[in-house]
C-alpha cells in the first residue's frame, strides 16, 4: 500500500531540514512524498536539494495559500492513502506510517486518525557547540474513539494526524479555499459528518506540531477562525452550541501530558 504524504511549504528554510529528516527516518517502505512550494524566496529549495531524503514530486510556483497548495498536492498524489506533513511538523517516531498502513489493512476503514502534540522549541548548545532543537509539550490533543455524533459538540480529529483513502478526496473534493483558516475543519465535517465515512482511531501520537500556527497566531486570527468555523457549522446543520463546545473542549488539552 503506497502512502502519499503532502507537504505545503513557503519560506521555511529553518524547519524544512527537520521535515526531510523525519521523512527519511520512517521505516515504512512505500512512501510517496509530494512537496508543493509556493515559490519560496529564502533557502527552502536549497535545503530540499541538499537533503538525503528528497521529495518524489516537487512543484514550486506561486499559489493562493496553504489550502490551494494542498489541493495541488492532492492532484499529484498517487498513493492509496493520503496524509499531510506540514513544513513545521515532524513525526514522534520511526514507525508512524507503518502504524497507519496497518490500520488501512481493514478494507472497511475509510479514514484513520491519532493524537497530536503541540510543542515549543528552543535551541541549546549541545556537543561541540552544535545547536539542537529541544522540545517541550505544551498541549496534548487526545482525539478519542470515533463517534460521529461528537461533531455536534465541536469535535474533530487533528487534521495533521488524519489519513484518508485517496478515492474519497477524488469523490468528495479537497479543501474549500474560500476558508483561509478553517478549510481543514470544513473538510473533516464534510467527510465524516456529512458523508459519514468510517473513521478508525489509533490511540497514539502521530504528529508533533510546533506552536505558532496561523489559526492561533493572534486574537485577530482566533476571531477569524471562529467566524469561519461557524460558517462551516451553519452549512452543515450544526449551530452556535457546537461553536461553544468546540472552543471549550480545547481547554483540557493544555493540562494533559
From TrEMBL:
SUPFAM superfamilies: Nucleotide-diphospho-sugar transferases (SSF53448). Residues 4-172 form the Glycosyltransferase 2-like domain. Keywords: Transferase. Pfam families: Glycos_transf_2. GO terms for molecular function: hexosyltransferase activity. Gene3D superfamilies: Spore Coat Polysaccharide Biosynthesis Protein SpsA, Chain A. This is Glycosyl transferase. It comes from Rubritalea profundi.
